[in-house]
Each structure stands twice: as C-alpha cells, then as structure tokens.
Amino acid sequence: MDDAPRHFPFDTDAGIAARAAIGMIVLASDQTLEHELRIMTTAPGVGVYHSRIYNDNAITPQTLRAMEPLIAPAAALILPGMPLDVIGFGCTSATMVLGEATIAARVREARPGIAVTNPVSGAFAAFRALGATRIAVLTPYSAEVNAGIRRYIEQRGVTVTAIGSFGEEDDRRVARISPAAILAAAEALAAGSGAEALFVSCTSLRLVAHVAALEARIGIPATSSNHAMGWHALRLAGIAEARPELGRLFTRPG
C-alpha cells in the first residue's frame, strides 16, 4: 500500500467576495450588527468580514472616546494583505463623539485610501437619498449622549423635530430591547413630529427586518444605524440592487 497522500489539480475562482469585500469593525459588546448585516448582504458575490473592538458596556462620552486608539488595530485585523472595498466602524455614538473624519483617519492608518463608513455617515447619506431634512430620532442613550447627538445632527444642517430614548446605558441590555418595543416607541415618536424620516440610533437596536413594516405604520421613511450603514457600505462597494423588502432606502441607488 502506498501511504503517500494523493495530490489533485485544482483551479481558483474569485471567491466569496467576487463583487465586493466589506470589512466591519464591531463593538465587543454588540449582539446585533453582524446578524443584521447578514440580512442586508445577501447579494451574490458580496463578502462581509468582521473584527471586534473593545468597548465599555456603559455608554458615556468618556468610554466612547477611549475607543479611538483601538480603531486602527481592529481595522488591521480584517483580511491582512488582502483587498477590501470599504470598512465600516460600527458605533453611532462613538462616531458622533470622535467625529466622522477622526474615525476615517484611524481606519486609514491601517488601510490607506479605503472607503470608510459608519452609522453616522450612513445616516446622512440616507437622509440625502431620501430627501429628508427634518428627522425624528429614537435612541437608547442617556440625556448627556442624546444632547450630543442632537447637536451633531443639527450642526450638519438636519433638523431634529423630536427625540426619544429608552434611557438605557448598558449596551448588553440595549441589545435585548424587543423589536415590538422599538416599533411602538418609533410610532409614538413619529406621530405629530413633523419629521420627514425617522432614524433609530444605535447598532444594538434591532430594526432591519422591520423597517418596511414600520414605514407602513408611520407613513414616512425609516432607517437605523445598522440599516443606513449597511446600505451605505453596499453602495460604496458598487452594489446597487434594489431591496424594497428592506424599506424605501434600499430602493435608492446612493
């Protein structure tokens, strides 16, 4: 008997990410983003690759700022030496505390020249695509974080007509707020707000699978941190298929 292993010929193809490779930096405590990205990135030839970044479970301006030096090392862990089309940074409140330009600069320390998105850049791109300049905002955050979010949005020329919160600072509990509770709060907030769109802020809140249903209830477009960032990442990567079952935003080209 010949004990030598048999060697077989093989060929190669373009791999899972034949059309687009998307990298995503996910908070260590996040239980939602990866699940919701899987819902949004079902197009053939699209690959999504994750890295985790340490964060404190308490959501405060101080703990959010502490993430800045960890962003570049997290970006460096995503398919080292292999091409990516875009990298997303998955924290809404940290992006507003640090600033979109700072997030992009830290990512590009590890991946020079790459397209970068985050829930905030995705949200503003979504507002433009939807033609919305007046929005209602639902968050899980403390009053201090909410004040910063309102200020950040309005400094960018978008009016916050109403803001509501679940008032929960622990990210582990935020991820367990039920979709039913989110939909009920969003509907109550949108009612009479005069908003042209509704934004649900926080990558831990579960909304992607329910956006279309929410829009039918409130009569205006809706998006969330994960929903907007996922759409924006796909569009930056050149993936423009319409997905009307994911809401009005996913019928917009970018």
Characterise this structure.
With 254 residues, the protein is α/β, with parallel strands linked by helices. It has two domains: 123 residues, Rossmann fold (3-Layer(aba) Sandwich); 104 residues, Rossmann fold (3-Layer(aba) Sandwich). The protein contains eleven helices and eight strands. The strands form two sheets. It has a four-stranded parallel sheet, with helices on both faces. Strand 5, helix 7 and strand 6 form a beta-alpha-beta unit. The chain is globular and about 80 Å long. The relative contact order is 0.17.
List the total number of helices.
11
Please report which band the strand proportion falls in: under 5%, 5-15%, 15-25%, 25-35%, 35-45% or over 45%. 15-25%
Low-confidence stretches: none
Rg on CA atoms, Å: 19 Å
Shape: globular
Largest sheet: 4 strands, parallel
Terminal Cα span: 62 Å
Measured as a percent range, the helix fraction is 25-40%
Given this structure, which CATH class of the largest domain is correct? Alpha Beta
Task: Give me the side-by-side strand order of the main sheet.
Answer: 2-1-3-4
Question: What key phrases describe this protein's structure?
Answer:
254 residues, Rossmann fold, 4-stranded parallel beta sheet
Brief write-up:
Helix content is 40%, strand content 17%. It has 254 residues and is α/β, with parallel strands linked by helices.
Which secondary structure elements does this structure contain, and how are they paired or packed?
Blueprint: E1 20-27, H1 33-40, E2 46-53, H2 61-65, H3 68-76, E3 86-90, H4 92-98, H5 100-110, E4 115-117, H6 119-130, E5 134-139, H7 143-155, E6 159-165, H8 171-174, H9 179-190, E7 197-200, H10 211-218, E8 222-224, H11 225-236
Parallel strand pairs: 1-2, 1-3, 3-4, 5-6, 5-7, 7-8
Helix pairs in contact: 1-11, 3-5, 6-11
